[in-house]
Amino acid sequence: MPVLLLGQSSAGGVTVAGAADLAPLEKGLIAALERTTGIRVTFTLGSSGMLARQIEHGAPYDVYLSANQKFVDDLVRSGHIRQDSVRIYAHGRLGLWSRSGSVRTLQDLTKPEVLHLAIANPTHAPYGMAALNLLKERGLFEAIRGKLVYGENVRQAFEYAASGNADATITSWTLLHDKEGILLPESWHQPIRQAGGIVAATPQPDAAKRFLDFLGSEEGRRLLEQGGLFPPTPSDASDRKPPLTR
Fold first, then answer.
1. Which of 65, 121, 149, 153 is the most buried (most CB within 10 A)?
2. Domain ranges, residue 127
3. Are 168 and 136 in contact (CB under 8 A)?
């Protein structure tokens, strides 16, 4: 994996720290934003936890798009994300994929010929934590724990399987929806509410807000859904209680 450099804010442009599951959507979002708003956008992609730590240490991002709500809320509490800007922009889902196509169910992962299963590192990747919890809740973790290999993020977990270094992967549906992956039932894992917000230190909050507004627009949601994400629900807004800031 190439080293991801910290984004550099520039006048008139927006630098987005984005969860790695957004990688397949990056070009489409950049083109649509420039066409409809005139805003130039630069993405830096990585695990949500890694990007959150960079923001805590002053990385010059304008917007943070996490693969879960928790990292955003933590940054609100520490004063690094503007509380009034936080929104859930999509729901994520887990998928199962193997290059050979022979792994079609979770039970297939227990077969002796499946030597390695790649997931994102659950320490700082929300999809990795969701995958780990899924295996535990389906009663498969003990049977396959010795097969687990961890990618730095969902994209690296997929690359392990795509390159043959792992026999299968459980990763973000955004990386699998156009590759004959298996979409795992939403009821099998806790909701993956992907949340975003404006970095408190941004010098261009208006442009950052326009970016988030675009994600919530009809065209923005259409692009997210085409890329394998799912729309937020009314309860995401009505049930959400903003965290207390320090």
1. 153
2. 94-183
3. no
1-16 per-position pLDDT tens digit: 333 333 334 445 899 9
217 and 151 share one domain: no
109 and 163 part of one domain = yes
pLDDT digits (tens, 9 = 90+) for 192-215: 999 999 999 999 999 999 999 999
